[in-house]
Write a structure and sequence with these properties.
Layout (H helix, E strand, L loop, with lengths): L11 H9 L6 E6 L4 H12 L3 E7 L1 H11 L7 E4 L3 H13 L5 E4 L4 H9 L12 E7 L7 E4 L9 H17 L6 E5 L10 H14 L7 E6 L1 H5 L1 H6 L12 E3 L3 H14 L3 E7 L5 E2 L7 H21 L1
Parallel strand pairs: 1-2, 1-4, 2-3, 4-11, 6-9, 7-8, 7-9
Antiparallel strand pairs: 5-6, 5-10, 10-11
Length: about 325
Amino acid sequence: MELQKKPAPEHTRYAALMHRCAGLKPAVTAVVHPCDAPSLTAAVEAAREKLIVPVLVGPEAKIRGAAEAARLDISAFRLLSTPHSHAAAEQAVRLAAAGEVEALMKGSLHTDELMHEVVRPASGLSIGRRISHVYLFDVPDYPRALLITDAAINIAPGLAEKRDICQNAIDLAHIIGIAEPKVAILSAVETVSDKLPSTVDAAALSKMAERGQITGALVDGPLAFDNAVSMEAAAIKGIRSPVAGQADILVVPDLESGNMLAKQLTFFDHADGAGIVVGARVPIILTSRADPERTRLASAALALLLVNERRRTK
């Protein structure tokens, strides 16, 4: 028997995100080493939608060759030639530190190569907080936007790093219009056990929020995934919490669990996940060559909203 395919879901929350960007001045963005068709296409698409003004940084011959092969017109964009990807990352970070660009966008270099330059103590991009990655997911069967962190940068964060990861996601939630986000600190269970360190961290983070060390949100944990997103599951287990069943932000224990959760939502639940790195002086757009256009644009839209907030508060 042939399996019936589900109809393609509508991603109305991303449309709302794009609407929030209407009329904003595009973010001047260094596109780092855009030497293949997917990364150049992402820059061209975002420029077309007036989300970014691209500054292409990388080997000129490779960039122009990729544009020609993909039939992309990059004649209107500033291009700064560098000999290789490492030099492109260095140059882009220098531009950001000097205030010449307002955001960074990963091109065809490896994420680690770009982030190594961003986190160097001498980069000039530190704000004294751990940087982290946040996914903004549009899950068709979930009644609200869902942020998941950190599934791309911090491999096995400790308590201090998790505090920054929480705060970064909360600050982003405020910027996209969630006034008091509900933050679920995830583990495998919802009770505290010294045999499962993630539950101890979750309990500590919840108490830190009560004491004002994490601000701007309702924070609770440990919560398992089911009782973080399902009111029914929370009720069955007798969990009384202002967060359980209605989380806006899921904070995962480590990168592995976050990455698997994000990919499960994408491939099994037809969700789209826009990604952004926060916690530095400029937002960093991380896109995958497998991302659909709407996801790439949503990532650029998140960056523009962050840039606009920084402009407003300068």
